[in-house]
Amino acid sequence: MELVMAKVMLGNNQEYIxxxxxxxxxxxxxxxxxxYSDYSSIVAFAKLNITHKNYFENNDDYVVTTGTLLYKNxxxxxxxxxxxxxxxxxxxxxxxxxxGNYMLTIKKNKKIYIFCxxxxxxxxxxxxxxxxxxxxxxxxIANIVDNSLTINEFNIVESVF
Length: 161
Hints:
By secondary structure, the chain is of the alpha+beta class.
């Protein structure tokens, strides 16, 4: 059995997000969460061959995760529900109660927070030109923006150290 990481993409260009959604559905991924608005849209896919939910939504607020995390020793939906309820906008304080290797996207009180664990071991990629995208898949970003990506040489050197 092959396990493939969950995927998420968030951005301000709905067409890009819909292209991400369509492409990954044709690749066999199961969509777990989607939300569209005028200022940002998000689509998430679950891990292949894994059945637990990687999101929790409450009214207009939500939390979506890729990777693996524990929040106050809770897993899955219970963890995400408590995490969203407790989150007050202080990312560093929240990280004190999280364990794992993850990327979190939290929308709460009309603000969006995107971050990974404090050691930055989980890869998070972004594209920022006329439009912006954030994902845990560089392949998907490159696929969406027609390979117009450039290399930030400073970031490559920085990642070595």
